[in-house]
Amino acid sequence: MDTLSNPILRVLEDYKAAVLAKDLEAFVALYDQDVQVFDMWGVWVYRGIAAWREMAASWFSSLGSERVIVEFNSPHSIVTQDLAVIHVFVTFTAVTAEGVVLRSLDNRLTMTLKQRSGEWKVVHEHTSSPIDFDTTKAIFKR
Amino acid sequence: MDTLSNPILRVLEDYKAAVLAKDLEAFVALYDQDVQVFDMWGVWVYRGIAAWREMAASWFSSLGSERVIVEFNSPHSIVTQDLAVIHVFVTFTAVTAEGVVLRSLDNRLTMTLKQRSGEWKVVHEHTSSPIDFDTTKAIFKR
């Protein structure tokens, strides 16, 4: 597959910055109005930006003084004129206000992006960890 | 998003037929040599057709005389010249040789397809169910 191209790289960098800052508006701005998200936690599907904004607001407010550092690894992207797809591994690391690591979680992430009026927006996101019914420890690094 | 278009529809139909027939060659033929799969079960990532073929061979042989009926619901696809993406809900229903329903499982599926030499092949697939740590019952319909 193609190497990581700039429009997608920018979206990933903006995602990291928005999560670290717990900046709801910056986070929501990455997504299309009609985004559909298959998220790892609890909910079957988030349909539309209002539902996804509510998830992000709840996530950020649940963190209190903690912050979340996002790292992306092994991205594979395909970019065409107005459509781009990427799949990548993501590590979410929660740290205290002082920077002490509390916990870390690995995810698999697939995103579809469309270009509209020169801007790339996420129209679909799918995150998961594989399920192991014997133990759920494989889901967590620590 | 666009309605379901023919090349993707064909791949989904071929997927259903291959699984119902437990036809390993037909199943593997849907995928690109360099396919990367984020599958729901156990394995972090399948890289390349050999690893994915091994998964399918193991799956089909584990069924014995059972068969698996695949149903797709609420597909959303975007098709451009040589790149297509789809996300859709999938129900896998295992039945006995006599057609008696044994169990049923709902998945969320995202696929990326590329056209090469006039043929569409799956280059990336991501399947999951949302995780509920209190109970895992939400994963199963029955």
Task: Describe the protein's architecture and organization.
Chain A contains 3 helices and 6 strands; from the N terminus they run ααββαββββ. Residues 135-142 of chain A have low confidence and may be disordered. Chain A has helices at residues 6-21, 24-28, 49-62, and strands at 31-38, 46-47, 67-79, 83-95, 101-116, 119-128. Chain A has 142 residues and is α+β, with helices and mostly antiparallel strands. In chain A, strands 2-1-6-5-4-3 form a 6-stranded mixed β-sheet, covered by helices on one side. In chain A, β3 and β4 (83-95) form a beta hairpin. Chain A has one domain: Nuclear Transport Factor 2, Chain: A, CATH 3.10.450.50. The A-B interface holds A 1, 34, 36, 38-45, 76, 78, 80-83, 85, 87, 108, 110, 112, 114, 123-124, 126-133, 136, 138-139 and B 1, 34, 36, 38-45, 76, 78, 80-83, 85, 87, 108, 110, 112, 114, 123-124, 126-133, 136, 138-139.
